[in-house]
Design goal:
- The protein is an alpha+beta fold and 227 residues long.
- It contains 5 helices and 16 strands.
- The strands form 4 sheets. Strands 1, 2, 3, 4, 5, 9, 13 and 16 form an 8-stranded antiparallel sheet that branches. The protein has a 4-stranded antiparallel sheet with strand order 6-14-11-12, with no helix packed on it. A two-stranded antiparallel sheet has the order 7-8.
- α4 runs antiparallel to α5.
- The protein starts with a strand and ends with a helix.
- About 4% of the residues have low confidence.
Length: 227
Protein backbone atom coordinates (compact mmCIF):
# COMPACT_ATOMS: atom_id res chain seq x y z
CA UNK A 1 0.00 0.00 0.00
CA UNK A 2 1.45 3.32 -1.14
CA UNK A 3 -0.88 6.30 -0.81
CA UNK A 4 -0.42 9.91 -1.84
CA UNK A 5 -2.37 12.26 0.43
CA UNK A 6 -2.78 15.83 -0.86
CA UNK A 7 -3.04 19.00 1.18
CA UNK A 8 -2.05 17.74 4.61
CA UNK A 9 -0.97 21.34 5.24
CA UNK A 10 -2.46 24.48 3.72
CA UNK A 11 -0.31 26.84 1.66
CA UNK A 12 -0.35 29.25 4.62
CA UNK A 13 0.94 26.52 6.95
CA UNK A 14 3.64 25.57 4.46
CA UNK A 15 4.73 29.22 4.23
CA UNK A 16 4.82 29.43 8.02
CA UNK A 17 7.06 26.36 8.20
CA UNK A 18 9.30 27.62 5.40
CA UNK A 19 10.19 30.70 7.47
CA UNK A 20 11.82 28.21 9.86
CA UNK A 21 13.11 25.69 7.34
CA UNK A 22 14.66 28.02 4.74
CA UNK A 23 17.39 29.63 6.93
CA UNK A 24 20.46 27.44 7.37
CA UNK A 25 21.19 28.49 10.97
CA UNK A 26 19.44 25.63 12.78
CA UNK A 27 20.42 22.73 10.53
CA UNK A 28 22.97 20.20 11.74
CA UNK A 29 24.55 17.19 10.10
CA UNK A 30 22.80 13.89 10.71
CA UNK A 31 24.47 10.52 10.34
CA UNK A 32 22.34 7.71 11.65
CA UNK A 33 22.17 3.95 11.27
CA UNK A 34 19.03 2.50 9.74
CA UNK A 35 17.41 -0.89 10.09
CA UNK A 36 19.25 -4.05 11.04
CA UNK A 37 22.06 -3.50 8.54
CA UNK A 38 25.28 -2.75 10.44
CA UNK A 39 27.18 0.17 9.02
CA UNK A 40 24.44 1.20 6.61
CA UNK A 41 24.25 4.95 7.15
CA UNK A 42 22.29 7.84 5.75
CA UNK A 43 23.58 11.39 5.55
CA UNK A 44 21.51 14.56 5.51
CA UNK A 45 20.94 17.80 7.36
CA UNK A 46 18.37 17.67 10.12
CA UNK A 47 16.75 20.06 12.58
CA UNK A 48 17.60 19.14 16.17
CA UNK A 49 14.64 17.27 17.65
CA UNK A 50 14.69 19.44 20.78
CA UNK A 51 14.52 22.69 18.81
CA UNK A 52 11.30 24.48 19.94
CA UNK A 53 10.48 25.54 16.37
CA UNK A 54 10.77 21.93 15.20
CA UNK A 55 8.47 20.78 17.98
CA UNK A 56 5.94 23.48 17.06
CA UNK A 57 5.96 22.38 13.41
CA UNK A 58 5.63 18.77 14.51
CA UNK A 59 2.56 19.64 16.59
CA UNK A 60 1.08 21.45 13.58
CA UNK A 61 1.55 18.34 11.44
CA UNK A 62 0.08 16.00 14.06
CA UNK A 63 -2.97 18.24 14.42
CA UNK A 64 -3.43 18.32 10.64
CA UNK A 65 -3.20 14.53 10.46
CA UNK A 66 -5.96 14.15 13.04
CA UNK A 67 -8.29 16.14 10.77
CA UNK A 68 -7.36 14.38 7.51
CA UNK A 69 -9.96 11.71 6.74
CA UNK A 70 -7.84 9.81 4.19
CA UNK A 71 -4.88 9.56 6.57
CA UNK A 72 -7.06 8.37 9.44
CA UNK A 73 -8.76 5.65 7.41
CA UNK A 74 -5.56 4.54 5.64
CA UNK A 75 -3.25 4.49 8.66
CA UNK A 76 -5.69 3.72 11.50
CA UNK A 77 -3.09 5.35 13.75
CA UNK A 78 -2.43 4.29 17.31
CA UNK A 79 0.79 6.27 17.84
CA UNK A 80 2.74 8.70 15.66
CA UNK A 81 6.46 9.34 16.13
CA UNK A 82 7.13 13.09 16.35
CA UNK A 83 8.04 14.41 12.87
CA UNK A 84 11.69 15.07 12.05
CA UNK A 85 12.80 17.57 9.42
CA UNK A 86 15.41 16.98 6.70
CA UNK A 87 17.26 19.19 4.23
CA UNK A 88 18.93 17.80 1.11
CA UNK A 89 21.24 19.87 -1.06
CA UNK A 90 23.50 17.81 -3.26
CA UNK A 91 24.28 15.26 -0.56
CA UNK A 92 25.23 11.72 -1.36
CA UNK A 93 22.09 9.61 -1.53
CA UNK A 94 21.22 6.95 0.99
CA UNK A 95 19.77 3.81 -0.44
CA UNK A 96 18.61 0.28 0.04
CA UNK A 97 17.44 0.70 3.63
CA UNK A 98 14.48 -0.34 5.71
CA UNK A 99 13.37 1.47 8.83
CA UNK A 100 13.97 0.25 12.35
CA UNK A 101 11.06 -1.88 13.58
CA UNK A 102 10.70 0.08 16.83
CA UNK A 103 11.73 3.64 17.64
CA UNK A 104 11.88 5.28 21.04
CA UNK A 105 10.83 8.90 21.40
CA UNK A 106 13.84 10.77 22.80
CA UNK A 107 13.56 11.69 26.46
CA UNK A 108 10.48 9.52 27.05
CA UNK A 109 9.71 5.84 27.69
CA UNK A 110 7.38 5.84 24.65
CA UNK A 111 8.14 3.34 21.91
CA UNK A 112 6.53 3.34 18.46
CA UNK A 113 6.32 0.25 16.26
CA UNK A 114 6.98 1.48 12.74
CA UNK A 115 4.17 -0.05 10.69
CA UNK A 116 3.96 2.90 8.28
CA UNK A 117 6.36 5.59 7.10
CA UNK A 118 5.32 9.05 5.95
CA UNK A 119 7.13 11.81 4.10
CA UNK A 120 5.63 15.30 3.97
CA UNK A 121 7.07 17.64 1.34
CA UNK A 122 7.86 21.31 1.99
CA UNK A 123 9.57 22.10 -1.35
CA UNK A 124 7.65 22.22 -4.62
CA UNK A 125 9.05 20.04 -7.44
CA UNK A 126 10.17 23.05 -9.49
CA UNK A 127 12.47 24.19 -6.65
CA UNK A 128 14.90 21.30 -7.08
CA UNK A 129 15.95 18.45 -9.34
CA UNK A 130 16.41 14.86 -8.26
CA UNK A 131 15.56 14.02 -4.67
CA UNK A 132 12.83 11.51 -5.50
CA UNK A 133 11.76 9.14 -2.75
CA UNK A 134 12.09 5.66 -4.28
CA UNK A 135 10.14 2.83 -2.66
CA UNK A 136 10.48 -0.85 -3.55
CA UNK A 137 7.81 -3.32 -2.53
CA UNK A 138 6.18 -6.54 -3.75
CA UNK A 139 4.32 -4.55 -6.43
CA UNK A 140 7.43 -2.98 -7.95
CA UNK A 141 9.30 0.32 -7.67
CA UNK A 142 7.47 3.59 -6.98
CA UNK A 143 8.72 7.17 -6.84
CA UNK A 144 7.30 10.19 -5.04
CA UNK A 145 8.12 13.85 -5.66
CA UNK A 146 5.06 15.76 -4.51
CA UNK A 147 3.99 19.40 -4.17
CA UNK A 148 4.61 21.19 -0.88
CA UNK A 149 2.04 20.26 1.74
CA UNK A 150 1.40 16.82 0.22
CA UNK A 151 2.41 13.52 1.81
CA UNK A 152 3.19 9.94 0.81
CA UNK A 153 2.37 7.02 3.12
CA UNK A 154 3.87 3.54 2.69
CA UNK A 155 4.72 0.39 4.68
CA UNK A 156 7.87 0.77 6.76
CA UNK A 157 9.20 -2.66 5.78
CA UNK A 158 9.63 -1.42 2.19
CA UNK A 159 13.16 -0.87 0.92
CA UNK A 160 13.57 2.81 0.09
CA UNK A 161 16.11 5.46 -0.77
CA UNK A 162 16.33 9.10 -1.86
CA UNK A 163 18.02 10.07 -5.09
CA UNK A 164 20.65 12.84 -5.01
CA UNK A 165 19.46 16.43 -5.23
CA UNK A 166 21.27 17.83 -8.28
CA UNK A 167 19.83 21.36 -8.15
CA UNK A 168 18.21 23.45 -5.45
CA UNK A 169 17.16 22.36 -1.97
CA UNK A 170 14.69 19.70 -0.94
CA UNK A 171 12.92 20.17 2.41
CA UNK A 172 10.74 17.49 3.96
CA UNK A 173 9.50 15.93 7.16
CA UNK A 174 9.65 12.24 7.93
CA UNK A 175 7.84 10.26 10.61
CA UNK A 176 6.49 6.83 11.48
CA UNK A 177 3.08 5.49 12.50
CA UNK A 178 2.10 2.57 14.69
CA UNK A 179 -1.24 1.38 13.36
CA UNK A 180 -4.03 -0.28 15.27
CA UNK A 181 -3.86 -2.89 12.46
CA UNK A 182 -0.24 -3.92 11.99
CA UNK A 183 -0.75 -6.13 8.90
CA UNK A 184 -0.51 -4.15 5.65
CA UNK A 185 -2.83 -6.49 3.76
CA UNK A 186 -5.54 -6.15 6.40
CA UNK A 187 -5.16 -2.36 6.43
CA UNK A 188 -5.49 -2.29 2.64
CA UNK A 189 -8.71 -4.32 2.75
CA UNK A 190 -10.16 -2.05 5.42
CA UNK A 191 -9.21 1.04 3.41
CA UNK A 192 -10.82 -0.32 0.24
CA UNK A 193 -13.99 -1.19 2.15
CA UNK A 194 -14.15 2.17 3.93
CA UNK A 195 -13.73 4.08 0.65
CA UNK A 196 -16.43 1.93 -0.96
CA UNK A 197 -18.77 2.62 1.97
CA UNK A 198 -18.13 6.35 1.63
CA UNK A 199 -18.82 6.20 -2.12
CA UNK A 200 -22.03 4.28 -1.54
CA UNK A 201 -23.15 6.84 1.03
CA UNK A 202 -22.49 9.60 -1.47
CA UNK A 203 -24.16 7.93 -4.47
CA UNK A 204 -27.07 6.25 -2.72
CA UNK A 205 -27.36 7.54 0.85
CA UNK A 206 -30.50 5.51 1.58
CA UNK A 207 -29.24 2.21 0.18
CA UNK A 208 -30.31 -0.73 2.33
CA UNK A 209 -26.84 -2.31 2.22
CA UNK A 210 -25.09 0.63 3.88
CA UNK A 211 -25.77 -0.57 7.42
CA UNK A 212 -24.65 -4.10 6.55
CA UNK A 213 -21.38 -2.93 4.99
CA UNK A 214 -20.66 -0.71 8.00
CA UNK A 215 -21.26 -3.69 10.28
CA UNK A 216 -18.84 -5.86 8.29
CA UNK A 217 -16.17 -3.13 8.35
CA UNK A 218 -16.44 -2.65 12.10
CA UNK A 219 -16.46 -6.39 12.79
CA UNK A 220 -13.26 -6.80 10.78
CA UNK A 221 -11.68 -3.86 12.58
CA UNK A 222 -12.78 -5.33 15.90
CA UNK A 223 -11.12 -8.64 14.94
CA UNK A 224 -7.84 -7.14 13.75
CA UNK A 225 -7.29 -3.98 15.81
CA UNK A 226 -4.87 -3.73 18.73
CA UNK A 227 -5.71 -0.87 21.09
Amino acid sequence: MLIQIPDILTSEQVDQCRTILDPVDHWVGSRTTEGSQPGRLKENMQLPENLPAAQEMGDMILSALEHNALFMTAALPSRVFPPVFHRYQGESPFGGITNQAVRQVAGTPLRVRTDLSAMLFFSDPDEYEGGELVIEDSHGTHTARLPAGHMVLYPSNSIHHIRPVTRGIRLSSFFWIQSMVRDDGQRSLLLDMDLAIQQLAQDQPDHASATRFNSIYNNLLRRWAEV
